[in-house]
Design brief:
- The complex is a heterodimer of chains A (about 150) and B (about 130).
- With about 150 residues, chain A is mainly beta.
- In chain A, about 15% of the residues lie in helices and about 35% in strands.
- The radius of gyration of chain A is 23 Å and the shape is flat.
- Chain B has a domain of about 80 residues: Sandwich (Immunoglobulin-like).
- Chain B has a 5-stranded mixed beta sheet with strand order 1-2-8-6-5, with no helix packed on it. In chain B, strands 3-4-10-9 form a 4-stranded antiparallel beta sheet, with no helix packed on it.
- Chain B is elongated.
- Chain B starts with 11 loop residues before the first strand and ends in a 15-residue tail after the last strand.
- Classes of the chains: A mainly beta (about 150), B mainly beta (about 130).
- Chains A and B meet through strand 1, strand 2, strand 5 and strand 6 of A and strand 3, strand 4 and strand 7 of B.
C-alpha cells in the first residue's frame, strides 16, 4: 500500500492530508489491531467497555446529568441507557459568547460482549461519569485447571 | 420540554504548549459563556474531573481553566471496546472585560464547572444621562 501518491489534477493539500490521515488510520489498525482506533457508533453517549475476572464495566461520559433520571435496562445481552441532559434556561438579560454544550435526550443500546447476570447490575455516577458494573455468570468465568500428577 | 436528541461529539484534542510532566491526552472542554451587565459566567463540561483537580488561573485578562482526570478504569481491567478517549482538559480565553479577581466564584458538580467572574466596577456598562441645559 503506497503511502504517497503523485499529484493529481485538482490536487489540494487538504484533500491530500485527509487521504493520508485515512491511510495512517488503516495502517495503525492493521499494525495494532482494531482496539487502538475508536469506534464511532453515532449514538449518544459514547461508551467504553472493559472487564476483569468477575465483571464487565460500561462507562460513559455524561456530565451534568441527574442520575435519578437515568434509566438503565439490561435486556437479552443488551444494555440500554436512556435519559435526558437538561441545561437550565438562563435569565432573559444575558448574552452568549459561546454555546457549545448541548441538551437533549438520549437512548442508546449497547450490545454486551459477554453474557451477564441481569440480577447483578450496579450503576454509579461520579464526577459526570456513569459506570455500570455487570456481573459475569459463574459458568463463563475463566477457571484455572490444575493438572493432577498420577 | 426538550425534544432534541443528543448526538455524540468527539472530544477535540489539543497540543499542550511546552513539555508536560503528566503523560496523556489533553482535550478542549465544551463551554457555554454568557454575560450579564454584572458578570461573566463560564460553564465547562469536564467529565471525570473531581472538584479538587480543577485549576483556574487568571493573569490580567488571560484565563486558563484546566482539570486533571482521575482514571475511571482500575488497574486490573482490560479494555474491550473503546469509543472515547480520556484525558485532562485545558482551555484558554482572553477576557474582554476587566474582572474583579477578588470575587470570582467557582464550583464543580457532576463533571461540570461553573465559574462566575464578576466584572470590575469600571468595566460595567454605564448609562450616561444627557443633561438638558
Amino acid at each position: 500500500m503506497p503511502i504517497f501518491t503523485f499529484r493529481e489534477p485538482g490536487w489540494s493539500p487538504m484533500q491530500e492530508m485527509e487521504r493520508l490521515q485515512r491511510r495512517m488510520g488503516r495502517l495503525f489498525e492493521e499494525t495494532f489491531g482494531p482496539g487502538m482506533t475508536l469506534r464511532r457508533p453515532g449514538v449518544y453517549p459514547l461508551v467504553n467497555i472493559s472487564e476483569d475476572h468477575d465483571y464487565l464495566y460500561v462507562r460513559a461520559e455524561l456530565p451534568g446529568i441527574n442520575p435519578q433520571e437515568l434509566e438503565i435496562t439490561v435486556h437479552e445481552g443488551n444494555l440500554i441507557l436512556r435519559g435526558e441532559r437538561k441545561i437550565p434556561a438562563e435569565e432573559k438579560n444575558i448574552n452568549y459568547h459561546r454555546r457549545e454544550r448541548e441538551s437533549g435526550y438520549f437512548r442508546r443500546v449497547v450490545s454486551l460482549p459477554a453474557p451477564v447476570n441481569p440480577d447483578k447490575v450496579d450503576a454509579s455516577y461520579k464526577d459526570g461519569i456513569l459506570t455500570v458494573k455487570l456481573a459475569k455468570p459463574e459458568e463463563i468465568k475463566p477457571r484455572v485447571i490444575k493438572v493432577k500428577s498420577a | 420540554m426538550n425534544e432534541k436528541e443528543l448526538t455524540p461529539k468527539h472530544k477535540e484534542e489539543v497540543q499542550a504548549k511546552g513539555e508536560r510532566v503528566r503523560p496523556g491526552r489533553i482535550f478542549l472542554p465544551a463551554v457555554d459563556i454568557f454575560e450579564t451587565p454584572e458578570a461573566l459566567t463560564l460553564v465547562a463540561d469536564m467529565p471525570g474531573v473531581p472538584g479538587d483537580k480543577v485549576t483556574i488561573d487568571i493573569k490580567d485578562n488571560h484565563l486558563v481553566i484546566s482539570g486533571e482526570v482521575s482514571p475511571a478504569q482500575a488497574a486490573g481491567e482490560n479494555m474491550l471496546l473503546q469509543e472515547y478517549h480520556t484525558g485532562d482538559f485545558l482551555r484558554e480565553f482572553q477576557l474582554g472585560s476587566l474582572i474583579d479577581q477578588g470575587r470570582i466564584e467557582a464550583s464543580m458538580k457532576d463533571g461540570v464547572l461553573h465559574l462566575l467572574l464578576p466584572k470590575a466596577e469600571k468595566a460595567k456598562p454605564r448609562k450616561i444621562e444627557v443633561k438638558v441645559g
